Amino acid sequence: MQDPRSISMWMDTVEGDLSLRPPLDGDIDVDVAIVGAGYTGLWTAYYLKQADPSLRIAILEQQFAGFGASGRNGGWCSALFAASHDKIAKTSSREGVVAMQRAMFATVDEVERVIEVEGIDAQFEKAGTLIFATAPGQVERVRGEVKEARSWGFEPSDIRWLDPAEAAQLMSVNGSLGASYTPHCAALHPARLVRGLAETVEKLGVTLYENTTAKAIEPRKVTTDRGIVRAPMVVRATEGYTAQLEGMRRQLVPLYSLMIATEPLPEDVWNEIGWRRRHTMADGRHLLIYAQRTADGRIALGGRGAPYHFGSRIDADFERRPDVFAELKRVLHNLWPATRDFAITHEWGGPLGVPRDWYTSVDFDRATGLAYAGGYVGDGVSTTNLAGRTLTDLLLARESDLLRLPWVGHRSSKWEPEPLRWIGINLATRVYESADRAERNKGEPVDGRVDFLNRLIGLKNI
Ligand SMILES: Cc1cc2nc3c(=O)[nH]c(=O)nc-3n(C[C@H](O)[C@H](O)[C@H](O)COP(=O)(O)OP(=O)(O)OC[C@H]3O[C@@H](n4cnc5c(N)ncnc54)[C@H](O)[C@@H]3O)c2cc1C
Fold first, then answer.
1. Which end of the chain is more exposed for a tag (fewer CB within 10 A), N or C?
2. What percent of the chain has pLDDT over 70?
3. Does any ligand 1 atom lie closer than 6 A to the CB of residue 14?
4. Per-residue confidence (pLDDT) for residue 10, from 0 to 100
5. Radius of gyration of the chain from Cα atoms?
6. How many C-beta neighbours within 10 Å does residue 166 have?
């Protein structure tokens, strides 16, 4: 069992007691069994209890609430959905794409509404997101995102291009060539949200069993290391850890995203950086980086680049890669040279759940009673809320517009057997890295080799 405070800067800065809740003690019967106490499991329990307070709900968690990505992420509560608009269109329609995107816009506000109603101090600030172009090769790509949104009918009030001077009004970033801006994103403290949700659902009468590992999920039955839970409805909310479950090795691949955080920075540094509100930020490179200004005045910056491990293995050691942390520090100091003299106080990481087609889904099979939501890749902070509401309508057979959104019932194909997964994913990471390096050195876009690779193996930039 890992010490809760050691898994991320966020868990380290949560207030109050983090001692474990008691595990399951023998066999039980409930109405709904949920496996996983991250946002997906907790939002689902929350909305189920709102809809029907009499439901007996048990959540089974292998470690503690917030142990997974929900206690470790970048805290972007965004309207981003993992599958592209084009991909969603292929499985639905133009209306489906627009409805899905509008549902995501509304979800950011729904998260804010609930945390206010429930008094969860998740340090939510909706200031929007800036995606900078920090190399000439990135300009077309970032502007292209704005054009693409316009082609679906989204307005400048949803996303627009800011020239370098306009962008600098919101944040100074070294080498900025402009940025896209969308207001549809909030920065929040991820661990305060997940721990606050856990306390909230407990108050509503949900029982949360920690230190209880599900070994197998079957219709109407979850077998754990502490006993059997029988329930007519079972929800799998295990995301990056899914491959560890019996029979699920090729469902979702765990890809690691790693983060660093500075010590709280003094006001004069913030003035120099000009990052006044808590806009989340990223740039247009292929191998994603993302950052937020935390409520206690740190920069928390994350990125991909950690290798995928053969056989979808998960291990606490994979969360700590000195080479990736060094690269994140290089990026931090390069974007904001004023941070160079300040300590990095925390380094951590965690697994994302990645479906083969990069398409998040939510589903319920009434015949077996098995439900599932996940495959968020790096966009789960708000999408999990939409998942919780959608699962509630599915489980309780309530007619709603949410059930017509294109991700409902979507089935991703399984990942290839090894060694193909290992070769494909790690090759892609190296190609994105080298494309970014070439763009920095040459000053020109090198989308060709990335496009070729994406077409060849069907991946999206990681
Ligand atoms: C470093 C990092 C940065 C990220 N940044 C962002 C961001 O800025 N914005 C964004 O939108 N998304 C981000 N994400 C993704 C986001 O955090 C996830 O999509 C989201 O938290 C998923 O929530 P979840 O509840 O589905 O999964 P998790 O939070 O991973 O929860 C799954 C839970 O299930 C438990 N579990 C698994 N298997 C079992 C089992 N067999 N028995 C019992 N319990 C089990 C795990 O212990 C875990 O607690 C990031 C992720 C990482 C790792």
1. N
2. 95
3. no
4. 98
5. 21
6. 13
